[in-house]
Design goal:
homodimer, 356 residues, alpha/beta, 6-stranded parallel β-sheet, 13 helices, 12 strands, DNA-binding
Chain lengths: 356, 356
DNA sequence: GCAGAAAGCTGAAACGTTTTGTGAAAGCTG
DNA sequence: CAGCTTTCACAAAACGTTTCAGCTTTCTGC
C-alpha cells in the first residue's frame, strides 16, 4: 500500500506539501498541486485512515448502539443512519446490546477506545447507577434514541409514548373492552413505564378497573411475549384484548393466540406500538400506533453530525429533545365486544368511526 | 484519557514494560506485573485502539458489506456476525450497498483504508470487470456470502439455489400449475441466474412450456416486485402461480395481488425463496424454500476469524465453499389447480402428500 | 571465583499522518 | 534597487502504541 512518502517522492515534493494539497489545509501553487495529484493517481494512494485518526485524535467512525438488531425498528434506524453517515464520509460501527445493560457499557467502552467521532445510542439501562456509569465514561458526542434516560443530559429523539399507549387503549375502550391486558417491556425503562402509565391512566379515566394481574412483564422481545401470552389466555377470566408494548411483542402475542387455537379478533383483540415491514400482510393486520422511524433516525443522525462538527470548534449545544407523534394504523385485530350496557353500545359506532 | 506513558510513570517502569505486561509479549517479574496493573487501574488506562492498529498495521474491526439491510435475511446475518465478532474481541462496521455495484466498491475502499482485519461480503456485482475490480483492490481476508461470484477465489457460504428453485417449481407443477411466472433478481447475479435456471429446468422436465414473457425482471427488492406484479396480473392469460426470487420479492408480489383484489391462493398461488421473521403470521403463509441463515452466517464468520488468525502466520488456506440445503416450508399460498387431464389430477394428491 | 547464560528491564525506532514554525523565493512599492 | 510583504515549500515534531536490540543484574555449573 502506497503511503504519503511514496507520493511525495514521486511528485518531488515533501510530505507536508502532499498533505496540504490533499486537505486544502494550506496554499499550494497550481503547478505543484497538479504534480501531487498526478503522483497520487500514479501510485494509487489513499490516505491511511488509522494514521489520520491517530494524529487527529478521532476517527471518522460513528458508533450505533442498538438494543436488538433483529427488531425491524432497530434495523430501520441502522439503515437510515448508515445512509446519511456514509454520505457525510463516516462509516458506522454497529453494536447490539440484546437489551443488556452490561453489554451496553462494554460496547460503549469498545467504541470509546476506537475514538469514534460520535454515538447513536438506544439506551437500555435506567436508574442512578446507570447514569453514573454513562457519565463516568467520557463519551464523544452522543444522541440517544427511542429510550429516554431521564436525568441524562444528552440529545434525545423519540416518540410520544404516552400518546401511543393512550390512543390504543382508548380505542379498545371505545370498542367496549374492559379486561385489557398489557405485555410490558423491561421494568424501569422509560419507554415501557410511560406506555404502561398512559395505559393505566386511560383505564382510570374510563372508570375501567386496572387489574395488575393483567399486566405481565415482557422485555420488548417477541419470544418472551409469546411465552407470556400463554398463561394469560389460559385464565378463566382471560382478557378480551391484549396490548403489546412494542411491535414484536404484539406479534408474539398474536402468534401465541393463534397457536393456542384462539381466533383474533373474535376471541381476543390485539394491538401494539410500532409497525413492522410487511405488517400489511399479517392477518389480522395488527392495529398499531406507528412511530415515524425514518424521521426519528434522520433527526438523530443529523443532530449527531451537527454536534460532531460544532464540537470541533469547542462550542457547546444544549441538550435537545424531539418527540414525534405516533400515527394510528387500524387493522383487523380489534373487534368490538358485546357490552351489556346499552349506552356503551351506542357510543361505540360513533367514536369508532372517528378513529377510522 | 490516560496513555501508556502515564501508566509507566505511575508504576515507575518504562512504557515497554507496561506494554509487555498488558500483552504478555515478554517475560515480566511478578512484582513489576502487579505494580503495572495497579497503575493501570489507578489511572483508568485503556489502550488506544487506533495507535495499536497503526503500529500493528491492522485494526480489530470487521467489515460487513450487505446488499440491503432492510431485508431480514441481511439483518440476520449482521446479528449473528456481530455476536460472534464481539465475543472474539472484534467490532463490526456495517455497510449497505443497496444492491449497487459502485457503492459496493466504494464501501470496500473505505474498509480497506480503515485496515479492517477482514470482510464479510454479500457481493452485488458480476462479470469480469467486477472481478477485476475486486482483485485490483487488495482485500484483507474475505468471506463471501449469499451471492457467489464465479471465478473469484474467495471463501463462499450460501444455499443451494438450484435445489431451492427446483423444489418450489416442482411443487407448483405437482399442484397442476403450468403458467408459472417468476420475478427474478438483478440480471447476471449468480443467485438470480441459478434460481431461474433451475426454474426453467423444472418446467422443461415436466414438459411445461417456459414462457419468457412470464419471467419478469426484479432486483431482489419488494417495492420493485410489487410494481412488476401488476402488469403480470393484468394480462388476460395471467399466470396461475408466481415465484419470487427471494423473500421480499414474494411478499411484494403477494401484496400487489391482494391490493389488486385478487385472492391468494384461489386466484393465484405464490411461492418464494427464503423466509421472513414472523412469516408464520402472514396470511396466507407464503410457501417457501428457507435458507438456514444463522448457520450460513455462523460458518462465514467462523471461517473469517480463522483466516484472520492464520493470515497472521502468513500461512494460506485454499478458498472453501459450503452450500447448505434449503428447507421447504409449505404455507397456504399455493393451491392445486383444476387440470383438464385426469392423469395429472390423480398424481396430484399423492405427490403432494409426500411433500407435506 | 569465574565465564557464560538467563532473566528482567529499557531506550529508541517505527507505523503514516497533520501541523507548526521557519526560511527561501518571488512580488510589490516607492 | 532597497525594503517589505506575500507566496510557497519544507523539516521536524507529535499522536500512542509495539517491538527490537542492548544493557544490567542475577543465576548456574564447574
Amino acid at each position: 500500500m502506497a503511503n504519503i512518502r511514496d507520493v511525495a517522492k514521486k511528485a518531488g515534493v515533501s510530505i507536508a506539501t502532499v498533505s496540504a494539497t490533499l486537505n486544502d489545509s494550506a496554499v499550494v501553487s497550481e503547478k505543484t498541486r497538479q504534480r501531487v495529484w498526478a503522483a497520487v493517481n500514479a501510485v494509487g494512494y489513499a490516505p491511511n485512515a488509522i494514521a489520520r485518526s491517530l494524529r487527529l485524535g478521532k476517527s471518522r467512525l460513528i458508533g450505533v448502539v442498538i438494543a436488538d438488531i433483529g427488531n425491524p425498528f432497530c434495523s430501520s434506524i441502522v439503515r437510515v443512519v448508515e445512509q446519511v453517515a456514509i454520505a457525510a464520509g463516516y462509516s458506522i460501527i454497529v453494536c447490539n446490546t440484546d437489551e443488556d445493560e452490561a453489554r451496553e457499557l462494554a460496547v460503549l467502552d469498545q467504541l470509546i477506545v476506537q475514538h469514534v467521532a460520535g454515538i447513536i445510542l438506544t439506551p437500555v439501562g435506567c436508574g442512578g447507577d446507570y447514569i453514573g456509569a454513562l457519565e463516568a465514561r467520557n463519551l464523544p458526542p452522543t444522541v440517544t434514541v427511542d429510550q429516554k434516560v431521564p436525568g441524562l443530559a444528552r440529545d434525545f429523539v423519540g416518540v410520544d409514548n404516552r400518546a401511543a399507549a393512550r390512543m390504543l387503549t382508548d380505542y379498545l375502550l371505545r370498542l367496549g373492552h374492559r379486561r385489557i391486558a398489557m405485555i410490558t417491556g423491561r421494568a424501569g425503562t422509560w419507554t415501557s413505564e410511560e406506555r404502561l402509565a398512559a395505559f393505566i391512566d386511560a383505564l382510570d379515566d374510563a372508570d375501567a378497573r386496572f387489574d395488575p394481574s393483567l399486566c405481565v412483564p415482557g422485555n420488548f422481545r417477541g419470544d418472551v411475549a409469546y411465552k407470556a401470552t400463554i398463561p394469560l389466555m389460559a385464565r378463566a377470566d382471560r382478557p378480551t384484548a391484549i396490548i403489546g408494548v412494542n411491535n414484536v411483542t404484539a406479534l408474539g402475542a398474536l402468534q401465541a393466540i393463534l397457536d393456542l387455537g384462539f381466533r383474533c379478533p373474535t376471541d381476543v383483540s390485539v394491538a401494539g406500538i410500532d409497525d413492522v415491514p410487511w405488517g400489511g400482510l399479517v392477518r389480522p393486520r395488527v392495529t398499531t400506533a406507528a412511530q415515524p422511524v425514518e424521521e426519528i433516525a434522520g433527526v438523530a443522525i443529523a443532530w449527531l453530525l451537527e454536534r460532531i462538527a460544532v464540537d470541533a470548534g469547542s462550542d457547546t449545544i444544549a441538550p435537545r429533545t424531539q418527540i414525534f407523534a405516533p400515527e394510528m394504523i387500524v387493522g383487523g385485530s380489534c373487534a368490538p365486544i358485546a357490552v351489556p350496557e346499552k349506552v356503551a353500545d351506542r357510543t361505540l359506532t360513533r367514536t369508532d368511526a372517528t378513529v377510522l
